[in-house]
Structure formats: C-alpha cells, structure tokens
Amino acid sequence: MQPALHTSASEAQIAKMVQSENPDERAALFLLEEGLAATTGRPTRLNANPLLRTAASRCQARLLQPLVEARAELDAPDPRFGSTALDRAVSAGCFAGTAKLLEMGADPDAGHGRNYLLEHASPEVEVLLRGNKVRSHL
What we know:
Blueprint: H1 9-20, H2 23-33, H3 48-57, H4 61-69, H5 85-91, H6 95-103, H7 114-120, H8 123-131
C-alpha cells in the first residue's frame, strides 16, 4: 500500500498560483524582492521606470505597485517616445492597469496628455478615465 499524499491547503494554493502566474511577472517579482530594480544610481541596479512602462503596456497590473514601491516614477516619460506608464496602459486597452495607475496617483497630463488618453482609450478604459475626471469639464 502506498502512503497517502498529504498536502496542506496553503501548499496547494501556492502551487496553483505559481502555475497560473505569467513567467515574466514571476521573474519581475523575483527581481523586485531581491532589490534589483531599485533606482539607486548604482550601475549594478536596474532602473525601474522602463519596467513600469513595460508592465503597463503588457497589462501586468500586479507588477505596477511593487515597481512604484521600488522607486519607479509614476509619470516618468520614456526618453525616446515620451510615453508614460499611463499612456501605455491606455493604449493597450488595459483597464486594470489604468485603474491601478490612476489609483496610485498617475497624472493624466503627463506624457502625451489628456486628449491622447481619450483618443486612444478602449470604450471600457474611456469610461474609467471619464469617471476619474480626466477632463475637468466632463
């Protein structure tokens, strides 16, 4: 007779979570936990700002707050294209990312600005933006 397998609920939940996580998210969270994304200015550290913009453009909303906590600047524009994390989340039609960035205080006037956001928003994201009074006269 084989011994019965005993797995606690927490172990099963952890296993399920690890299987369902996006590998990119898992890698980014690992780097953040190890302190490799802090913007300390040391050459061995990563700049968290590009990571924030990339997470926003890929709709990886779970990564946004940890990146900001690792000192990514919410409204830092891409030096080449001028887009912010909010610009990228809106362009990607990412409702969860847009909501999280606005909740954390992202400025709709930063980057490409309010008109850009509304022009490029999906219908769902546009409702969110208008609900957050992206245009003061709306």
